[in-house]
Design a protein that fits this description.
Two copies of one chain form a homodimer. The longest helix of chain A is centred in the last third of the chain and has 29 residues. Chain A contains twelve helices and 15 strands. The first copy, chain A, is 45% helix and 13% strand. At the A-B interface, helix 1, helix 2, helix 4, helix 5 and helix 8 of A face helix 1, helix 2, helix 4, helix 5 and helix 8 of B.
Chain lengths: 404, 404
Amino acid sequence: MSTISRAAQFAQRTAHLRASTIREMLKVTQQPDVISFGGGLPAPELFPTEAIARACSRVMERLGPAALQYSVTEGIPEMRVWIAERLTRRFGRIFEAESVQIVNGSQQGLDLVGKVFLDPGDHVVLEDPSYLGAIQAFDAYQTRYLTVDTDEDGLLPDSLERVLERADPFPKFLYLVPNFQNPTGRTLSGRRREKVVRVCEHFGLPIVEDDPYGELRFEGSDLPPLISYESAAPIVYLGTGSKIMAPGMRIAWLVIPDDEIREKIVLAKQGADLHSGTFAQYVFHEYAMDGDAFDAHVRTIAQTYARRRGVMAESLAEFMPEGVRFTRPSGGMFLWVTVPEVDTTELLRISTESKVVFVPGVNFYPGRNVNDGMRLNFSNASEKNIRVGVERLGHAIRVYKGVS
Amino acid sequence: MSTISRAAQFAQRTAHLRASTIREMLKVTQQPDVISFGGGLPAPELFPTEAIARACSRVMERLGPAALQYSVTEGIPEMRVWIAERLTRRFGRIFEAESVQIVNGSQQGLDLVGKVFLDPGDHVVLEDPSYLGAIQAFDAYQTRYLTVDTDEDGLLPDSLERVLERADPFPKFLYLVPNFQNPTGRTLSGRRREKVVRVCEHFGLPIVEDDPYGELRFEGSDLPPLISYESAAPIVYLGTGSKIMAPGMRIAWLVIPDDEIREKIVLAKQGADLHSGTFAQYVFHEYAMDGDAFDAHVRTIAQTYARRRGVMAESLAEFMPEGVRFTRPSGGMFLWVTVPEVDTTELLRISTESKVVFVPGVNFYPGRNVNDGMRLNFSNASEKNIRVGVERLGHAIRVYKGVS
């Protein structure tokens, strides 16, 4: 139909390209005997259900109708202060509540970033591979991608420099997930963080730093986010309550110290949906206000996921055929498996019959040029199912290779 | 800064043009002794606070973690069924749950419609005057507007026909608010509804029908929405829970029988924020499921607003100088005052000193070419304050005219 916008047509073409496998895969996961490493769901049994129920009652008692009325676009002041204080406490640099914009999950943050920065044909710089949801959000703005090489310690600053020297047109921003990246589970090393900031500062390239998993560290110490470095190039930071409280509340946040960019983001948010849920924000804040309980709950999530990561890594070592490599992330929800000479999109067909699914790695490469990766989620399955699922996956690889 | 997208720059220019007066006005309303007819807030004292608190508890007891997890982009099935059934019951045509997309308030519905239909430079057809929030949502897509004349019975089908005959480029859709329009309070008459549908069908023009106030009828019978007519041209219908439950929950809906448009809208919603709040949807549905209580509550809201509309109309008749005209809407939240030979933007400066504010009409005209209108909200002030505020407004007009 000719009435459909070019942006919507473009988004549909790219979505078909990138996500049709995933949609098919997610349908399969609704069968009860299928073990899914495919989605990106937190463990629902760890949601603080009772504490949230209590927070709902307290908000209604204390605020009544004020918790249900329209509210300001930037977010309720209590939430903005809580976020600024938590970042300040974690990273020893002062973050201002005025820099915070509340959004409906990080996905909306990415969409607003796209709306404010991107015109059709613009370039965005991505890690290779990169987070699929970000690619989908930017696709809506008819964007093209430049990719930077990565290794075990994340994005390579030298590769970034080479890409920026040659880029034409010059890109609008670098998007990256520095902690326990989706999809690889890798973390940008401490030494590289300042280098990445300096390269971007040198070229005047804004950074969009997406940090959904930073609080879910299993071992080692927190590394400072890129936004904690002084830089002349603007940095937009995304955090979320989805992994440390519950995704169904749709509470996430942008931290945007740059006044001009923030002003445009606020205006874009106003046009997009006026403001995020007043009630959901008050309930989140009421729940998070009890700092000790909140921190204890985040630790419980991290410890549970650490055990699941451990079981998955051990099972991979036990059940994978020779030559298969995998990451052992220090946090987050995903690890990455490389199966040399195997097209994992084909492998998924076989593994689905064996009742185990994952996301084929090709979907995370903007150029769709690497076929031997798999993203495995370890947050949403029990330790027992992780072991059974990895064994099934090993079997499927052997069937694929015709050795079973 | 050159990194800002053309769309964001355009949105900012138009927002400055259209909304800076309003932002200033809303700041003033935070002073406690100011009577505001300016905002568009429902009466918070009518929010079903206790029933919502009970719904929160019941949802948590019954569903637990499932109410807090990620959910599907289209919305939870229970909400989609509830909306389809309510429309079917009200209008005697069958609406399908599959046509429904849940969004975060009508504003997000308008934004998604913009994303799916509009490219830079495209035309949208609007009533003159028209709803400011829609203009702001469409502005983000660098849109231009064609306007159709209106009278006491709403949009004039003959004027629409003339506009479409001459339009170049041909517009992407007609946007209208058929019931108790924002800003005028006028309702598109029953006789004209089918005519508007037929004109659009003849020209193949999609219709975007925004119906936030339809359930708040004070007198007379419901008129069928445009979407209840059979038509070869697609119709997208927007409804919301903001006026019949509470805006802070951010629950609204699109009804999109056309498969191709709906598919694009779902994809745009997925890119925009994955899905609306799972918990908020379950709480809304739990509350709404008790149909008798829900209907009784909607009647209470309508009766309260009807009394306030009555007091405002009587006060206008009593306190306005000769020559001032005003509408007497049969529902909704706004009425429209015409003050011949008065620039109401100037008048607002004077009335602010008299501690009463409103939205100057010029902001609702896409061409910004009519200066003598005022939009008055009657849902958010008490009957006593409405009377006092209108008296102050009459005084301000006399001051403006130099007769006081």
